[in-house]
């Protein structure tokens, strides 16, 4: 079965399609793709839903490697709203 691995940084991303056997876990897919030891990964999601390394993958899943937030979204919104002309 085929799954997609996705990693994003500000202004760029990397996506990789990998073929895995049925019953493959998220951790096994990352290991097979050489993405298991990427620094700065805080967690994982499948189609935006939090997932753990032991999560079994299904055909067509999109695994997202999550980085820590660089700014609190609420604070960023307050700053934008307080600008003149907003």
UniProtKB/TrEMBL annotation:
<dbReference type="InterPro" id="IPR016155">
    <property type="entry name" value="Mopterin_synth/thiamin_S_b"/>
</dbReference>
<dbReference type="InterPro" id="IPR005346">
    <property type="entry name" value="RnfH"/>
</dbReference>
<comment type="similarity">
    <text>Belongs to the UPF0125 (RnfH) family.</text>
</comment>
<dbReference type="InterPro" id="IPR037021">
    <property type="entry name" value="RnfH_sf"/>
</dbReference>
<dbReference type="Pfam" id="PF03658">
    <property type="entry name" value="Ub-RnfH"/>
</dbReference>
<protein>
    <recommendedName>
        <fullName>UPF0125 protein DT603_00590</fullName>
    </recommendedName>
</protein>
């Amino acid at each position: 079965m085929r799954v997609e691995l996705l990693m994003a940084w500000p202004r760029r991303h990397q996506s990789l399609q990998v073929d895995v056997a049925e019953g493959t876990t998220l951790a096994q897919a990352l290991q097979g793709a050489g993405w298991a030891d990427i620094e700065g990964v805080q967690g994982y999601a499948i189609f935006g839903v939090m997932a753990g390394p032991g999560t079994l993958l299904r055909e067509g899943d999109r695994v997202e490697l999550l980085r820590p937030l660089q700014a609190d979204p609420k604070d960023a919104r307050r700053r934008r709203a307080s600008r003149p002309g907003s």
